[in-house]
Specification:
Elements (H helix, E strand, L loop, with lengths): L1 E2 L16 E5 L3 H13 L3 E5 L13 E2 L3 H6 L3 E4 L4 H8 L8 E4 L5 H13 L3 E8 L11 E6 L1 H11 L5 E4 L6 H29 L4 H28 L9 H18 L4 H15 L10 H17 L1
Parallel strand pairs: 1-9, 2-3, 2-5, 3-4, 5-6, 6-7, 8-9
Antiparallel strand pairs: 7-8
Helix pairs in contact: 8-9
Bound molecules: NADP nicotinamide-adenine-dinucleotide phosphate (NAP).
Length: 311
Amino acid sequence: VRDGGGAVRHVDDMTTAPVSIAVLGLGPMGYALARALAQRGHHRVTVWNRTPGKTAGLDGVAVAPDPRAAVAAAPLVIACVSDYAATLGALEAADLAGKVVVQLATGTPGDARAAAAWAAARGADYLDAAILAVPEQIGRPESTILVSGSETAFRAAGAALAELAGTVSYVGPAVGAAAALDFAVLSYLFGGLLGLYHGARICEVEGLRVADYGALLAAAMPALAGMVAHDTDRIQAEHYTAPQSALAICARTGDVLIRHAREVGIDDAVPRYLATEFGRGVAAGFGDESPAAMVKVLRAASSAAARGAAR
Ligand SMILES: NC(=O)c1ccc[n+]([C@@H]2O[C@H](COP(=O)([O-])OP(=O)(O)OC[C@H]3O[C@@H](n4cnc5c(N)ncnc54)[C@H](OP(=O)(O)O)[C@@H]3O)[C@@H](O)[C@H]2O)c1
């Protein structure tokens, strides 16, 4: 278990590891969480789902008829329904006094802050968490769960969370931090996925195997991770000059991708978006700087939007 500074928090140090856990929500993710906890064997797991009949394959779990009964059965409540409104709606009738609630639905940092205040008003110790994994990765080394909020709740829940993900990262007491980092990661992921799908169309139209393209990308991941670290270090240091590869090259490459799409008759929406965005960087005078200078374009646009909203 890692804390926000990257230091390892040993789960063995967490003296209050609970043995009774309520899992609310048996969608694909909640089911994976409940199964992982149940398979460990040493927890008593009680599950609840709005629609009954979703417990096939969950051996050894108790099934609660409603959220109130599920919460009553355990000191630790892990909620993983579709969103915050559904979570609070499910917990509304439960007695949360003295419970540790870990909220795992995807939402904004504002959602997390509101849910923390809501839980505190009901006497619960609240943790907000975000899962960086798909259900089949739960319990595997490659999965990560980000956690923020009450330190005492983390001490109580950390050991159980560590059974759900290879890395459990406590990113601090500011309860919105896990959701904020989750959104930052999702922003990168979904932008990359759209690029991936355009890349798949390039392969298809050029007679190449899409699976080979995926293998190529997987092999290139260490280099891509290096680029990510390089750009985020530059943004942190506000150092954009003397790049190895200039922003103007990204804009120009976007234009070549558009030309290719038109030559072969595939949709050009993704390269047009890339060329337009990097074009904004060039127009702002950052063509000779690092592509990371795009953050200055986004900051200026945020300021303009804020000025517009204030009028
Ligand atoms: N799947 C992933 O890869 C993934 C990854 C990271 C994070 N997450 C997050 O994990 C959360 C759960 O995701 P999921 O994949 O399990 O699928 P989902 O479709 O987001 O959630 C389905 C679950 O939410 C329940 N639900 C929906 N509305 C409800 C309501 N008003 N009251 C009570 N329960 C309600 C469903 O109950 P019913 O069965 O009764 O419909 C079901 O248990 C989401 O916030 C998602 O963003 C998912």
